[in-house]
Amino acid sequence: MKDLAKRFPQNPLLMPKDLVASRHELQIISLLNPGVFRFQGKIWLLVRVAESIAQKEGVIFFPVMNEMGQMEIIEVPLNDPDLVATDARIVNYKGLDYLTTVSHLRLLVSTDGIHFSEPETCEAALFGCGELERYGIEDCRVSQIGEDYYLTYTAVSENGVGVGLRVTRDWRQFEFKGMILPPHNKDVAIFETQIASKFYALHRPSSKEIGGNYIWLSESPDGLHWGNHKCLIKSRPGFWDSERVGAGAAPIRTPYGWLEIYHGANAAQQYCLGAFLMQLEDPAIVIARTNDPIMVPTEKYELSGFFGYVVFTNGHVVDGDQLTVYYGAADEFVCGAYFSINKILRAMGFGPLL
Amino acid sequence: MKDLAKRFPQNPLLMPKDLVASRHELQIISLLNPGVFRFQGKIWLLVRVAESIAQKEGVIFFPVMNEMGQMEIIEVPLNDPDLVATDARIVNYKGLDYLTTVSHLRLLVSTDGIHFSEPETCEAALFGCGELERYGIEDCRVSQIGEDYYLTYTAVSENGVGVGLRVTRDWRQFEFKGMILPPHNKDVAIFETQIASKFYALHRPSSKEIGGNYIWLSESPDGLHWGNHKCLIKSRPGFWDSERVGAGAAPIRTPYGWLEIYHGANAAQQYCLGAFLMQLEDPAIVIARTNDPIMVPTEKYELSGFFGYVVFTNGHVVDGDQLTVYYGAADEFVCGAYFSINKILRAMGFGPLL
């Protein structure tokens, strides 16, 4: 297995202690999975900030947004027989599922792509809004389409886990477009270029029975309403991506096809990155896919954290051959790594690009 | 619990032995869950026909459509340790789910709405087509929108369970519109009237974790691409519809609102019918819902069959106050029942209509 990533020596770029919690009664548990975009000549991260109440011994808390948009806390003793808490990220209490944290999205800006700080001129945080986002919003992809930025994010509530969309041009005012893909769905990356006047998006529905956690392609006339869904990339038994796969950020246009960086996980919930290539004219046709991951958790900050052995990306910037991937490490830290687009293509049997 | 249904004395209207299997090597296991529409002055059913291979002792078969559209058979000894067969409808073999039958849709026509026979002038059967329908197509709703009939059906394959759409005007030629809602989704009923130039549909996504089997509402500019999903009707702990709910056929316009007949099931998988009412101008607003079911399995043909204790509808016709519901009984028989729309509205505290 050949790891193609050149990690930033400055990793982790951001840790929970680097930011201030959104309310005084909360603490930041994790920073993770940033959306990435260029705006006004700078590089911006839209980091997922996962918060909870400061923990007491023997008790678990689930934070939930109430109908007034305020945080409510459900408190349960850890020895409650109705509590099933076997995963750091999700618990079941009296038959209902809850997240152990509530996430919002925080804007950070950088001139060098390495040192990030909170912006002075923009709305710095986006919170869940309405009854479909009561458990928070997560893992935002940012696609620039013309002058508009399309923000697709995981919207979580007791109704299920679906995909919300907000659109902005100035990062001050956001148009709320509602839930564009119903439960159970996440990992939505809208293509930044239309093909034959159609919008395209990758998404990752999950099946309760029959099927799995696969990457699908969808079409839209307007970026808001989606149809003609097709199954594109499946998990592969016996591979590093045997349990689930999901798209990263918007695909990168290359002469050989649309290049997509994706995450895959095995049954042990170990998350690596891979790549696949879609035909330029018809992205429903997958031309190639890496057999081995292009990035595997190896560093301490990737192996150990809120949820260890995870590298997960949903944001990058491109400069010629250089792909700068920002990623969540161990579901706790924000990190960066450089890739050569040529080398990724070569790993799939294509190239070199001139 | 007050059952508002007046069952046809002729029930069951159709049984597996009444039709001929689609291929000589197959047998019809069940007839169920018809879509219903009027065309050329007659009443038509689009019945789901579930077929399998004639069973041998000690062996289970899963029928699957191959890429050439031909039926392939997977044969597994019942004592195979990799086989999990605890449900009559679905089995798990080597970690993958299979249906025990493959369904197609069969057209039947009647002048009196009671005696149905195969038509002479139309395409009599619709089969699964393409890689998203390899395990068959099921439970079709037929919505008449202008001169067009929109057929929304459950499309099943190893990729998952989603919703396919075909459109026809003459019941001879069908336009295939692909999968309009990705897995896991079913029970889609498109409103037959647009509201403020928008198409609306009820649908039933299922959640793998967080959320449940709830009825959602969706909007579309063209009937093909769907967005702005909202959660409308949830299952109710302690009620007859505690485990799952799903829309029936297209809602019925009444002066008090859009009337929808829906199915609900409890944890024991007992399926009854209920009703709810949506606001005319904005169907995202639910005005009322029956606490008790309006129809409960009581007859022998409802209590006992391929999957007992089931009444399930996705088709009806309306004549003034009379609602004629066609329904699947015990996942094996096609039956009919009359309801008074006034009485259903009254059960929700509305009416009477003049």
UniProtKB/TrEMBL annotation, chains A, B:
Keyword annotations of the record: Glycosidase, Glycosyltransferase, Hydrolase, Transferase
Gene3D superfamilies noted in UniProt: Glycosyl hydrolase domain, family 43 (2.115.10.20)
One Pfam family of this chain: Glyco_hydro_130
GO molecular function annotation: glycosyltransferase activity; hydrolase activity, acting on glycosyl bonds
Family annotation (InterPro entries): Glyco_hydro_beta-prop_sf, Mannoside_phosphorylase
Family stated for the protein in its record: Belongs to the glycosyl hydrolase 130 family.
Name of the protein in question: Glycosidase
